[in-house]
Amino acid sequence: MPRTAAPLKQIRPMRRAAAARAAKGDASKDGATRDGETTTQRIADAITTAIVERRLMPGTKLAEQKIADIFKVSRTLVRQALNQLSRDKLVTLEPARGARVAEPSVEEARQVFEVRHLVEAAMVRRAAGELDAAQIAELRAHLAAEQAAVQRTDVTGRTRLLADFHVVLARMLGNEVLAEMLADLVSRSSLISLMYQSAHSAEHSFEEHVAIVDALERRDPRAAVRLMQAHLRSVERNLSLAPRMPHSASTPLVPA
Fold it and tell me: In sequence order, what E strands does 13-170 have?
């Protein structure tokens, strides 16, 4: 059954930096900002983050006019953002029904994790031989942020940080194509988890991340690959055929 959107008064679509730029008049009439970020991309990023952070549940209707009102833009720009998200498999577009957050099948879930196993095994094998002390320290700082979010029961923060760990690793290798591919896979994994993950343990995922970084610091590629594959398997094992219900019907449509 489709979920309903949160009250509009709870919606704050712009990140602080983007809001500051807009306040200074940095946004141009064609929707582009000085730093190259387009309004279309900003809308797509906000909706993607809302999906990953569990603010938008699978099946939620994405009304073009409401989103346009939130971002104070034309429906054309919103439509462009939704088309982009459709290509990324995060949104489905149906004639006469409009846009909705995608509801992936169990088979799609298995396929996504199969690809992640292949990609991330190769990634950590390479990372074990290439990451320097400064990058390991950066990963440790990320782990500290994960731990703090887990300990304070910050569902939104820990969901984002646990997902970002994998993308941070990819970017450290200097391959932006790999990072973008993994960001897409992680986003789709987060959406899948919203529907099918029956007993996800944030604390356990954090501990597995720590073990992976320990192996990277020891420059032990075999252990790093083994630990990453075990981590992905533990997440996949928690998938079931019974979709999860949303945490709350009052969560915001897009992130603050």
Answer: 61-62, 91-94, 98-101
> How confident is the model over 72-109, as pLDDT tens digits?
999 999 999 999 899 878 899 988 889 999 888 878 88
From the CB of residue 202, how many other CB atoms can be counted at a distance below 10 Å? Answer: 18
Q: What are phi and psi of 179, to 5 degrees?
A: -60, -45
Q: Could you tell me if residue 243 is inside a domain?
A: no
- Of 70, 86, 101, the domain-final residue: 101
- For residue 155, the model assigns a pLDDT of 66
Q: How many CA atoms lie within 13 A of 250 on its CB side?
A: 2
For residue 99, how many other CB atoms are within 10 A of its CB? Answer: 23
Domain count, the chain: 2
**Which CATH number fits the domain that encloses residue 74?**
1.10.10.10
Task: Please give the structure tokens belonging to residue 242.
Answer: 């019974």
Q: Is the pTM of this model over 0.85?
A: no
pLDDT 10s digits, 127-168: 999 999 999 999 999 999 999 988 887 766 777 788 899 999
**Residue 103 near residue 59, CB atoms below 8 Å:** yes
How far apart CA 63 and CA 222 sit, in angstroms, is 48
* All residues at 6 or more sequence positions from 214 whose CB lies less than 8 Å from its CB, including other chains: none
